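[job 4417] fold queue: 2 targets
>>> target A
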Amino acid sequence: MFIETIKTPGLAHLSYIVGSAGEAAVIDPRRDVGAYISIAKQHDCRIKYIFETHRNEDLISGAAILAKLTQAEVKHGPNADGKVQYADIVKQGERFKVGHICLEILETPGHTKDSISILLFDSEYDSGAVGVFSGDTLFVGDVGRTDFYPEQAAEMAGMLFDSLQLIADKAKHAIVYPAHGAGSVCGDGMAEREFSTVAHELSNNPMLQINKRDEFITNKLAEQHYRAPYFSVMEQLNLEGASATNAPRIVSPLKLIELQSQKHGWLIDVRPVEGFLAAHYPGSVCLPVAMLTAYAGWLFHPEDNITLIAQDDAMASAAALHLARIGFDNTQRYVVGSFTEFAAMGGDFTTLDTLTAAEVKELQQQDWQLLDVRKITEYQQRHIKGSQQLFLGHLATSLDQLDPETHYITMCASGMRASVAASYLRANGINNVKVFMGSLGAWLNASYPVEG
């Protein structure tokens, strides 16, 4: 028997392929499915089943694509918010043989109504579950969020409590294989490791220390989560089944000059922040590859036309793939950012001003507005007096609340999100903006006072 984990950077998504005796099953595949096919070939296995533990909100499932390529059967839990067109519905207690492995379905609603967990049995040895693919029901150090049905928030939280009790009853000594790791938007308190057991979680997971159902519900209702606008697009695509992705084509800097003049969609610069600050195309938005899946779905719309600015072909391909995983399929072209060549052709480029902690402190005395783009939970823990909190993801819907004549300083924890925010504001006509590099970290190192 083998189990391999496929991790998707940016989304902190974890999917799995498990196999035995020439057969394999895939759990929660991402849209680019090549890794599963490659691993199955390495183990000389045929992919027999594909399981989805729930209908994903934060990424496109690859189940429909993988099924077409392998003729595998797709299995999905009951009570989805619509018909899952490419899958068969499974229910509590159903079992599936994969070589010498047995996979058993547990209905574990709470995160979503259609959530399932999958018990893993090694039928050659004993009858106890050795593993549980827990989806977004149970994480390492946390449990799933329950706010996707606002009008039924308490009911969903109660369902999750019951589902966790079921996992504890059916798989107390099993290894936990969750659908997400630390950094996912589907939970806040996940550990920085991706291995655990149900028994360990029962002893150490804060949410599993709550034994009273009402108290658990109260705690879940008090949580604060952000829900990106693109989630609704993911939900619909994950009912219909998405198509395979297409790679963007390279264009010359001359073409970029033409695109700039036509205002043809968005220019997204996926290079590291330091490169963007030094020189970038006017009107472009700084969004490094590692941050794409976290914020592109907030700042842009999946139907937007996108041109990427990258250091090289590999960076552009990686960025396009990250975007495709969250449903952005109009990434049609990219430019390799050579600013000396661009300038020689008559193209314009610009820079973005940065500030030190001492300079920020001085400018605060001169009516510059400090704009803190961290999450509200971060801001409440500690913030600079006089700063205004505006989550980076909410910039697109808050532009009308910002005065183009005001001078803004963007800040976060280190300067990364602040750079994205400043570039987005400038691309939308708010030009009086500088970036506090180092941000709260630099402020604290300077021993300046904070609140919270």
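>>> target B
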Amino acid sequence: MIRILRHYFPIRNMLFSLFEGCIIFGCFLFSTRLLTSSASFFFDLMLVLRIALITIICQISLYYNDLYDFERVSKMPEMATRLLQALGITSIALACIYFIFPLAILDQKAYILSIFFLMIFIIFWRICYIEILNRGIFNERIIILGSNNFAKDIYKKICSTIDCGYTVSGVIPDNDTPNLPKGIPADLVLPREGARICELAELKNIDKIVVALKEKRGCFPIQELIQCRTEGVDVVEGSSFYEMLTGKVLVRQINPSWLIFSHGFRKSRAKEILKRVEDIVFSFSMLTLLSPLLLLVATLIKLDSKGPVLFAQDRVGKDKQEYMMHKFRSMVADAEKKTGPVWAGDNDPRITRIGRIIRKYRIDELPQLWEVLTGKMSFVGPRPERKYFTDQLEKEIPFYDQRFNVKPGLTGWAQVCYDYGATVEDAVEKLNYELFYIKNMSLALDIVIILKTVKTVLFGRGAR
């Protein structure tokens, strides 16, 4: 695994993206060579730059069409359909660029021929790669030390993520008479008694041991793990491994000591200034560029139903300071008059016709750009909740109050990784992601979240 932008990626996946970029570049270069009599184009800097531009636009289109999400796209029909969509979007984007910068235009015949080659080579390349993933070739082989629910969570996540880069070769129980949770196959259980961990690791050619013991007193094999470590087997604490694997932490599984001693939670005056500059630049730019859309939405809301255009509601911000957050009104006026404070549900009857559209594409959240500009919120951070709910959730969810150490955000890691939630369990899952963000927050991670937000908004995912 390699760490980039505070997130972990299997090196194999990075090489896949790089090699696919080379395939795209090569298809356009080869097509140009077929249609060009002169061989001097190999030294044509403008041609290289034109093809590089196409390659970048094409890979961005592949990303936004989920073609790098192998859990979502692993079947041939789905892959071909999304690839056609991505190439269509690439062509439209390039047409816009060429209209503004004619110098960037590539020969039309070469472009059409390249698209033909791309369909063949990319589909063939991806079929081969998915077969490699399914067979677990080049995966790191791991042993999970522990047989509790936390160990099961790690095992299930590895099994359900085709491109995680790991294969579970065995599970060593907490004790000699384990009560295995459902979901861990009995044939994976390795004997704890009479077999040393290092011997098992050597026998099964293990690369990593993940320690997922819930209770370490009296059953923590210190000497054996030290020997494994000195013999070259990587030993990783379970919570750190799960964070690396999923981009979240399990607030109901982690120990306070892990939270205290783990890396992250670094703050400095320079980081605060940089984040504030980021907030001002993004919020001011978006308010300026989107002002025609804001005016149009305000008009449509006014015409669609009675009531004010904006909806103000109390929220809890940094250090538990309350403030009023504004949104475009997407529900009927006085929607909570009879029910009191409640989360929105699927097909909520209180949502208006225009409200359903602006909620789907998160347009109702845009007035909060003013809160970001004035410093009450940040562009990226945990989504703010109402005090009515935070008072309840603090009592039920461990570490919930840690989300108040940073400013709430217009978008956040939980919003791009998890759908809308309207239950306590949903709030727990969102906090798993939010705590990961607070622990690893940086400008680079903010940029990743903003790019993922664009993808979420474009496809209208996770809204109610």
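[job 4417] complete. Note on B: Residues 140-246 form a domain with the Rossmann fold fold (CATH 3.40.50.720).
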